[in-house]
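FAQ
Q: What does a multi-component entry look like?
A: The components come first, one per line:
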Amino acid sequence: MAKTLMKGNEALAEAAIMAGCKLFFGYPITPQNEIPEYLSRRLPEVGGCYLQAESEVAASNMLYGAAGVGERVFTSSSGPGISLMSEGLSYIAGAQLPVVLVNIVRGGPGLGGILPAQSDYSQATRGIGHGDFRILVLAPSSVQEAADLIMDAFDLADKYRGPVMVMGDGMIGQMMEPVEFKTRKKAKLPPKTWAATGYKGDRERSIINSLYLDPLKLEENSWRLKAGYDAMARDELRWELFNCEGSYDVLIAAYGSTARICKTVIQMLKKRGISVGLFRPITLFPYPNKQLYDAAQKAKSVFCVEMSTGQMLDDVKIALEGTRPIQFYGRTGGIIPTPDEIIRQIEKIMKGEEVDKR
Amino acid sequence: MSKVVFKRPKALLPVTTHYCPGCSHGIVHRIIAECIDELGIQERTVGIAPVGCSVLAYNYFNTDFFEASHGRAPAVATGAKRARPDLIIFTYQGDGDLASIGMAEIVHSCNRGEKITVVFINNTVYGMTGGQMAPTTMPGQVTTTSPYGRDVALMGWPIRMCELLSSLKTEGFIARASTHSTKEIIKTKKMIKKAFELQVANRCFSFVEVLSTCPTNWGMTPKQAQQRLLKDMIPYFPLGIFKSPNGDESKS
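Then the predicted structure of the entire assembly, as tokens:
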């Protein structure tokens, strides 16, 4: 298929349809509005259903209903809306239903702003709602990768029977880039025998449920979910190493748009004969701990850069187990760090100085 | 030869429920199950019961089922029905659930004309959590969170859902029935059956409010509870068909 120039949000929407998803329930919020707008045009063309819910709370419960009858379904939102969806997501996780959601992150807390940020990292990776659960989180750093990852997200959701989030920042959603929609082989997935499609007596009744009044059964459900997360950590980790073949004193840890800016930084420094490596996690949960640890052992120190006040930083610390000094630089609130300001910080690190606070 | 003249509907499982003596849930469950049997839709019916006394309804109906979060059953039903329009989807909700936390979901599902059936149990109190004040609690009614009686100056008047929903322009079937007497129970069944029939015909959104008793949280015997329903509730919550696609509205 030829490459098309598209906005990230529209590419995400089209790729979801290509992944066989014909149901979308959502609520308007900037900076992801191109997703519902695109789908409100496109889904009727392919015999699907686009529905604008009365709220994100309702949208997340519509996902619960659609996923519970066994159909592929997705939604998109941004921070304030994702907070409202956390109710439905907790029930979806508890009932082990596959859904896909997109968070095009804007600055917070509260109403915050509408410009790109990475300030929902902790919300996404630490469970997103009440109870003992996690969701698989994928973080693209280009429009092409966003399109590829959302197609994978539907298969992963079906495989692990839980919510999968594609988390981009406002920049991924809003910028235009060439994108190719790659047709792919249908993944081998187990049939959805658990779906509530009507009881005909040929199987147990399907009960879509997260209620376990018996504590032993609730505990069993929590450990069942945990076993899924352990399997993801074993089989689904994704990461990218950039300029890590040779030697480097500093290893940058960054994801999404920030990682892309850091690649520019690395190329600029290369021209000056300075070698810096980049570790870019693509799965934010589960986090590629060992892969970061290994890459860091070649460096003297690790430099974490984010569009937040330091959220992925926690995971970097966990991964490194105290083996390397870590410095952090963050811009947030919708400010995107420039290559020059990141280079200034790396120069300081190489001189053994503390980086700027911001 | 003896002939079976009365038996358990196929759509109702042969189990003991957790409902209190004198509670209307058992009657309404049976009515729904009879309607499912009579319409021959058991194999394609999916029920949804959100948080409330009936959250365990999935243990009682012999159909596929969803447990849903508080108030959101109409949204869950919307998702399920839009995904699988061939299924018959009903929700079973209480008054705290539907008229308070789930107000947005019920109003918008009704307004979109979702082809679902909603059975709304109104007993003027939160049952499962132990008898707190609901949006439908009557003026002066004592509950665990209105120990001096509901003060309408502070908390407003009880919300009448049928009246509210029937003000929406979208076509729909909106009715209120009661369980305080055999005669009314028979009428309730007629309304619930009509509601399911309209969904089977893919016609419109259908909603039946059933005035119900909660002797435990009202602090009454079952008989006193039925008398209270008749005397206090019906004058404020009149029975009848408030809106119908067939134009056969009738109020008592």
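Q: Is there any commentary attached?
A: Sometimes. For this entry: DSSP finds twelve helices and 15 strands in chain A.
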